[in-house]
Amino acid sequence: MSARNRVAIQWTLIALVVLGLAIDAFVHFDLASAFKNNKTSTVSEATLFRVEAVIALIAAAALLIWPRRLTAGFAFLVAAGSTAAVLLYRYVDVGALGPLPNMYDPYWEPTGKWLSAIGEVVAAVCALALFAILHRAAGRGSIRHSVPSAGLPTRS
Fold first, then answer.
1. DSSP assignment, residue 78?
2. pTM of the entire predicted model
3. Which of 70, 77, 79, 113 could form a disulfide linkage to 123, CB 3.0–4.6 angstroms apart?
């Protein structure tokens, strides 16, 4: 595979991760106010939604600014964690966990959380693929541990 193709694949994966995390953040910000009354004495579900949205945006921005294994791994953890949470609270009535309120919600509609789940899955899969590609490049002893800007060689 040529260096140009490798760079194109890496930037495509980055774009898909960023898009998935942006969708995740948008949905969580949008839905947060609907869950403001679901709370414990410590925290509300709305606060948790907003925190998750901010973390997703941080992961997306970090990957755009500094596309390395570390940021790809962080983006994967954020997206995979969000996917696990939405699926858990969709299918299992866990109840309140310590300071966390009971966030069981067995419905995909009308909340739009299905859109968030799709974005999270796409982001997780693409971030994992990006991490693997960057890890493999680093293992070969290549100086290209990151995605080069505009196809130009970089130092890591």
1. H
2. 0.86
3. 79
Number of structural domains, the chain?
Answer: 1
pLDDT digits (tens, 9 = 90+) for 90-106: 999 999 999 999 999 98
β-partners of residue 124 are: none
Q: Chain-centre distance of CA 18, in angstroms?
A: 8
Neighbours of 77 (CB within 10 A): 14
Does some domain include residue 156? no
Alpha helices in the chain (DSSP H): 3-32, 45-65, 69-91, 113-139
- DSSP category for residue 97: B
Residue 155 falls inside a structural domain? no
pLDDT-based confidence at 154, cuts 50/70/90?
low
